[in-house]
Amino acid sequence: MDKSKHLESAIKTHQITREESLLQKFKDRNKEVKEALERYYGDKIYSPFNSGSYAKNTAVNTKFDFDLVSPFKRNAFGSNGTLKEMYEDVHDFLQDEFGNSAYIKKQKVSIGIEFYSDSDGDVIKIDVVPGREFNQDQYKDDQNLNLYVYSSYGLFSAGSDRLKTNIEAQKSHVNDRATNEKEKIRKIIRLLKIWKIEHGKKYKSFFLELFVIKAVEKVDVSGNLWEKLKTVLQYIRDNATVESFTLKDPGNSSNNLMDTLEDFERTTLSNEMKNMLERIEDNDENIKVYFPENEKFVEEESNSYGSKSGSLYSVPPKTNFG
Length: 322
Hints:
Blueprint: H1 3-13, H2 20-41, E1 49-51, H3 52-56, E2 66-72, H4 83-98, E3 102-106, E4 111-115, E5 125-133, H5 139-142, E6 145-147, E7 163-165, H6 167-175, H7 179-198, H8 205-218, H9 225-239, E8 248-249, E9 252-256, H10 263-282, H11 287-290, H12 298-304
Parallel strand pairs: 2-5
Antiparallel strand pairs: 1-2, 3-4, 4-5, 5-6, 6-7, 8-9
């Protein structure tokens, strides 16, 4: 079978634009949360903005949420206010504001708002990421923020109150690249996100993004789409367990995203890449298990190729390997 043709179809059937009505619901809820934060905190907060996969154009339509970064002024919670106090205050506000219509959950560095299922059965989720500028009135110049770590985040312990980053720089890490390189990176990121979602993997999307970008920077990622993806999978396999290997946060070079994984998780990641490569090498058809098409849009995509209705390929049943 043509593995690259299947991967292209997997990407196309997972395009976020195919779920336009659902996407609009996310946009509407995102606007609602943004305006609520601005209204409540007034001059204590800079304008919240979107980060994450939607902002980087790497989202897929089987599972997506909006990350709403909320940058606070240095003295927003008092001259001696802590990052923990900031985080707790935002959580309590969101609970008061949306608790009757959504489930509010404290997460690693964000606060999740999961709105209850609507009449269409859709569940909208917005993750609010509170951050505080380093020094009063400095954010507009450098866009640097301190985040609070609510629960353990790999080697970042719970209660850490100095996770420094620059989320705008993280967004630019993908968006500011040359057009041909950017498109190659985005396609591979989307495929890894399809794998992650379909197989219930817990790796952060930003972590996978950095791994793909570093692979493109360090090795020759060329050829057809399968050959490009294969090269990246091999790169992850070979480097995930290397103790000296780093994935530097473009928003703060002292942050190593490899530290978001425990040692056993690094080994697991390497083995998952190894198993995936071996299974696809054994049988091309297995590529459809790891990177399936979104069945909801398969017929539409098949017709665009000029073939008869139905999937481009017969999809084998899912297995638990890899």
